Amino acid sequence: MTSHHSIPGTVPFGPTEAMKGYALNRMCYSFNADECRKAFLADEEAYMAKYNLNDQQKAAVRARNVLQMIAVGGNAYYLAKLAGIFGLNMQDIGAQQTGKSVDEFKAYLQSFASKNEMVMKGGKNV
Amino acid sequence: MSKILGSVSTSHIPSIGKAIALKLQQDPYWKPFFDGFHKVHSWIAEQKPDVVVVVYNDHGLNFFLDKMPTFAIGAAESYATADEGWGIATIAPVAGDPKLSWAIIEGVVEDEFDVVTCQEMLIDHAVTIPLQLLWPDQLPPPVKIVPVCINTVQHPLPTAKRCLDFGKAIGRAIHAYGSNQKVMVLSTGGLSHQLDGERAGFINADFDAECLHALINTPEDLTKYSIHQLVELSGTQGLEVLNWIVGRGILGAKAEEKHRNYHIPISNTASAIQILQAV
Q1: Å from B150 to nearest chain A CA?
Q2: What are the residue ranges spanned by the domains of chain A?
Q3: Residues of A in contact with B237 (CB under 8 A)
Q4: Phi/psi of residue B57, nearest 5 degrees
Q5: How many structural domains does chain B have?
Q6: What is the pLDDT of residues B191-229, one digit of tens each?
Q7: Residues 33-62 of A with CB under 8 A from B
């Protein structure tokens, strides 16, 4: 496993996370199926136990806390399916992880729009 | 000999699927994005592709982390869609071109790219949303597809150089294939965005501009970046630019940029569209 300087606020999903988060991601993968989403909503604890989540993973899911889920090996592409169950969109998720309100997070995204024209016109390197 | 026309590259953000379903194309938030497709529609009408090689990454529909291929190529008669868990409408199955798929598979394996072959393969929003954007009034689209799936989900990922070389190998296989079909490339994903972590919301327009420029005729310039550097510069999901690099490799040495659209933000992403004509 190659080591790199860390990128602040970023956990690339590599071998360590793949092993650590397998049960959690496997549960999230099951949520492609409507009957699995319903079974989770009907009895969350039983569903997490069925997928062998460890105590930290269960706590992260109970807390609906995305940063905690990442810390226990969650992969963004799979966690998105869990977020969908709770009706959360990517701005809700972004706001939660960055400690901003949803409006503040949207304003943050919007702040990059000043660059649109530069990129349309070919960028500074052209 | 098959002819490679060129490529359309576009973002594949799930919320676009919802905007299409709700007919929000003229909504002020969405209009700058959807308007970028008028030129794409006229280019496709002019070029009349028969088959589309779609380069994308699966988001946990066809592949799970139990078995994660670095490169996988579909070789099915048709490709079904399915529930992805967050409410995007599925579309009717899309026709495949198994003969071209196998010709590509044989060509790239001969070229030492040992791909996974899939005679059954579900396609997710990374394929279906771009198809809906390109053929909004014609579903299923009036083309056959060959899905080429790149692992951008679980590291280690293929390097940018490997992706470019893989694209070149696909291009050689298409050229060698003995049919008169007109082949278009559709690369999906990106550009810069990051959904996860305290750095969520990260966007890097300067790097996107560099990528869009390099993709025209100097894609080798992007191969100097390691995957770790690409995460830093384009975000954890901005890495989907690897799909664009594979797609660019398919076109061959020279290309001409026919159209570009770039709009921040769509959802949490710097959305982009680029048409490259193979020359």
Answers
A1: 14
A2: 13-88, 90-126
A3: 76
A4: -120, 140
A5: 1
A6: 999 999 999 999 999 999 999 999 999 999 999 999 999
A7: 33-34, 37
